[in-house]
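REQUEST FORM: STRUCTURE PREDICTION
Request ID: SP-0412
Submitted by: Lab K.M.
Chain count: 1
Length (residues): 260
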Amino acid sequence: MLRVTVSVLALLLTQCDEKPKDALAPAASALSKPVAPREAQVFVIDSGTSNTTFSMDSELEKISGRAPGALRGELFVNLHDLTKSSGLVQLDLDQLGIYQRKRDDTSGEFGTETKNDKQNADMRTWFEISQDTPADVRQGNRWAEFKLTELASPSLRDVSAAQAEHKLTAQVKGDFRLHGRVKPRSARLEIRVVYAAERPQALHVRTLEPLLVGLEEHDVRPRSAFGKLADKTLDALGAKVAKVAQVSLEFTARPKSAAP
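STATUS: Completed
RESULT:
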């Protein structure tokens, strides 16, 4: 009887440690490219101008990530009515590097920022883009994607007038896919539309408020190898690893006919 009781208790504890399935965002292998709205002009992201950053602040570690030049994608922009715009932006996680600042206890000061090779390798294992990941799975996980479905409440709706610059703010809404899991996200943007010779030459876009991305929702968690969870869970690493990443973007997009 004692053996049965112990076995049942062990099973219950194991089930408690497992992530509830309803906590995970829905699965998707990729996001489809949106159909260009009527009267929309196509703008292509200039990858070389792009920069993506994130921050994760916990009690003992501040982790930051930087991926310069890692964005690509297209925006379908209706210059007469920005709310009728859409697009697909992709981030290459292979180009992401992470850095950390640590302290020994909560009363101490955070140290100098460093880049730790093991931590970067661990990050790739968590995302399942490490070298031991099967090629098809790795390729699918390599790209984080944001599908713009709504540009809401722009402070300036019509930017079709040929003038040096239009500057506005708006709330971008859409579907965010990371590690094969998709969840609706939104962020506040600043957009500058630059004209020359009476034609739009560039869109300069940057986040004013970051996208908040929960690691657990996207099944990004400690792994020791592909398909093998680490002994320590995100909860166990709570003092060192925050569960939410604050993601910020900045890029320039140019008319497709003029894009490099």
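NOTES: The CA atoms of residues 60 and 104 lie 7 Å apart.
Reviewed by: T.R.
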